[in-house]
Design brief:
The chain has 271 residues and is mostly helical. The protein contains ten helices and no strands. The longest helix has 37 residues. Pfam families: BPD_transp_1.
Length: 271
């Protein structure tokens, strides 16, 4: 039994279910202000308390989960959709000018963290969740390109690939028919890790005002709003902070568990 996979899957599923449920139900309207009920501590009927505008924290966490998961999921999808083909191409053309161009382009993107990319994008197009997705997605491209290239290079010298080349298959066909299926397990595990990093990146961008904009709740902006009220309303920081911690922990545990489950060598060692 893989405990990491089970615990990580349960924690991740909890927040995914909360995000999905928020489309049809929340305990209160997440945007409804109730000034007389502001800064209430956790308890009935506000299970996680209320913020400085009297908004229900539990409802905001549910909707904020939807924002964080959507941004991270799309950003990882962008990274995989563009980075994997680039990595396969670079591996297939190892040592060529195209391989060098792709790798140096990756180095260039790595030189600018997602926050810096987001600032550049925001300066042109303005702040928002879409720009956060673009910034995080751009940063994910070289991650998947490098991992795909590294894994693919070790396969190009294998006998079954040499057989495919002798049979007359093109490099592109070999990459997608033979190389990609054999590196997919690694990409799934990396995708889980990048998903957790995407949630952290989205929270960080929202914290500095570059992510989702009001009235859309965001865990990062909830932390930013709470920083001046921690001394007399600590739940304003603890609630979104714990949501981020548990979600990232769950995804990392699930990624570790998937790595052990999908790699037969690690499975044998653990058993």
């Amino acid at each position: 039994m893989n405990r990491n996979l089970i615990i990580g899957g349960l924690l991740s599923s909890l927040f995914v279910l909360a995000a999905l449920l928020s489309f049809v139900w929340t305990p209160f309207d997440h945007a409804a202000m109730d000034i007389p009920a502001k800064l209430k501590l956790p308890g009935a009927p506000h299970w996680f308390g209320t913020d400085h505008f009297g908004r229900d924290m539990f409802s905001m966490i549910m909707v904020g989960a939807r924002t964080s998961i959507a941004v991270a999921l799309v950003a990882v999808g962008i990274g995989m959709a563009l980075g994997v083909p680039l990595g396969l191409t670079a591996a297939a053309r190892k040592g060529s000018w195209l391989d060098e161009l792709i790798m140096r382009g990756n180095d260039l993107v790595f030189a600018f963290p997602s926050l810096v990319i987001a600032i550049l994008i925001t300066a042109v197009f303005g702040a928002g969740a879409l720009n956060a997705i673009i910034a995080i997605g751009i940063f994910n491209i070289p991650v998947f390109a490098r991992i795909t290239r590294s894994a693919a290079l070790s396969l190009w010298e294998r006998d079954f690939i040499l057989t495919a080349r002798v049979s007359g298959k093109s490099s592109a066909r070999i990459s997608f028919e033979h190389i990609l299926p054999n590196v997919m397990n690694l990409l799934i595990v990396q995708g889980t890790i990048q998903f957790s990093l995407g949630i952290l990146a989205e929270a960080g961008l929202s914290y500095v005002g570059l992510g989702a904009q009001p009235p859309t709740p965001s865990w990062g902006r909830m932390l930013a709003d709470a920083q001046t009220m921690v001394s007399f309303a600590p739940h304003l920081a603890l609630v979104p902070g714990m949501a981020i911690i548990l979600t990232v922990l769950g995804l990392n545990l699930m990624g570790d568990g998937l790595r052990d489950y999908l790699d037969p060598r690690l499975r044998v060692v653990r058993t």
